[in-house]
Amino acid sequence: MAELTDLSMLEAASALRAGDVSSTELTRACLDRIRAIDGDVHAFLTVTDDLALAQAEAADRKFKTRPGEELPLVLGIPIAVKDVLCVEGVPTTCGSRILEGYRPPYSATSVTRLVEAGAVILGKANTDEFAMGSSTENSAYGVSHNPWNLDRVPGGSSGGPAAAVAARMCFAALGTDTGGSVRQPAAFCGVSGLKTSYGRISRYGLIAYGSSLDTVGALARNIADLAPIFSLMAGHDPLDSTSVTDPVPEIRLNGADLRELRIGVPKEYFIEGLQPEVETAVREAIDAFRGMGAEIREISLPHTDLAVPVYYLIAPAEASANLARYDGVRYGPRRGPGKYPDDYFVTRGELFGDEVKRRIMLGTYALSAGYYDAYYGQAQKVRTLIKQDFDAAFKDVDLIACPVAPTTAFGIGAHGDDPLSMYLEDVFTLPANLAGIPGLSFPVGFDSDGLPIGMQFMAPHLKEAQLFSAAHTYQSATSWHTSWPEL
Ligand code: GLN
Question: Of 56, 90, 126, 186, which has the fewest beta carbons less than 10 angstroms from its beta carbon?
Fold first, then answer.
């Protein structure tokens, strides 16, 4: 048999059911691989060996005592969790010094639902500080490296989860997507990544960045592996008043008939600055869908170019409010001379990174009395226009297909200290968050440097099932998702 860590999640699940392998063996294989290669990749901030092995033993007991029963597909499967999601008793830093040493007394609902189904938590994966970034370079604990080329970024902010999945240190990982943070790192690392509809998965226990944009998602080696994770995490949670009560759709992956499917290709997503190899690979994938019977239509989302300025007003505005709670009193370490208000300023000044401080200032400015209408109020109005673009488009098409990012993984340090050029990397992912709709990123090729290229589908609010069936049909007919970096 190949290495255990080379199995997909569903292959590992079948091996567990057949008794060919135990969860303890799978978990040890992942922990060994983390020990062997994570010094180079730096996907993990915390590895929870003892917790993982205890959960694995519990899973193995379940397989023994309840054989023949229909057990959850994630039972006994080792996964990683982005370090912005609380796991009870496990250090949760958000990639920030200001939460160093914080151990949450409860777990995020998304995590709890997987743990109750028997998933094994290997540890907490790296992220840009408070999920603000597109490369993990903003993590206070060091950058993660792209397993395909260690000099490149893995994307961000869920760069740790994406790198961990691509480097086969875990079978799947939980991420979050406020403006692209699941889809873009998935594309950069050649894995599949799901951004769910706003409200589909509870945000309880997800440490807030931009509350009207934040969504929980997942990354895995292929789309079929994402389905059981999505189904378990999704669904109403009374602990999050924005989580929707709509029923969770059943995900069917038995070779959908694509002849009924209308795919829209927005002309605003094929613009100057798009790396030609990305365009070629995405257009070839769209052709493959045409070949499988789907109808392809050119569409227009005319307000696309406003997504970057709108997002970079709304997200920092919400962040500035959400991050007000880190004051050196309630969480993490305190710095300063021991008196108020000096401690407050020194703690925040020393323990927040530059990008977080930049956004707190931007957001506070945009929300201040004299400027609220001109900036935040105006941004909300344009956000509605962006959402209306999608509403109009989805009258004529079922899915929208487009690139995930303008380029493949860029070099570590490539954006230097030019935050604006980094923000522009998000041009294709931000609109889905502003509109609250789901997206799915999956590999469709490689560039001439051997770096993965991703494409994304977007679907109407709560229509995740549509994303899954179309993209899975593509993966059944292609093999991009089956190549892995040598490490
Ligand atoms: N890159 C975007 C930002 O910096 C999106 C991040 C995210 O989705 N968490 O805000």
Answer: 90
Rounded (5°) CA angle 275-406-440: 125
Q: Single out the residue of 424, 101, 344, 363 nearest to residue 208, CA to CA.
A: 363
End-to-end Cα distance, the chain: 19
Ligand 1 centroid distance, CA of 207 (Å)? 14
- Band (162; pLDDT cuts 50, 70, 90): very high
User: pLDDT tens-digit profile of 98-117?
Assistant: 999 999 999 999 999 999 99
Backbone angles phi, psi at 201, to 5 degrees: -120, 135
> Are the CB atoms for 452 and 190 separated by under 8 Å?
yes
The residues annotated with a catalytic role in the active site are: 82, 157, 181
Give residue-wise pLDDT tens across range 420-450: 999 999 999 999 999 999 999 999 999 999 9
User: b vs e for 162-183, b when ≥16 Cβ sit within 10 Å of the residue's Cβ?
Assistant: bbbbbbbbbbbbbbbbbbbbbb
Q: What is the pTM assigned to this prediction? A: 0.98
For residue 133, the CA-to-ligand 1 centroid distance in Å is 5
Output phi, psi for 116, to 5 deg: -65, -25
Structural domains of the chain, with CATH: 4-259+397-482 (3.90.1300.10)
Best substitution site from 82, 127, 423, 426 to test ligand 1's pocket, by max atoms within 8 Å of Cβ?
A: 426
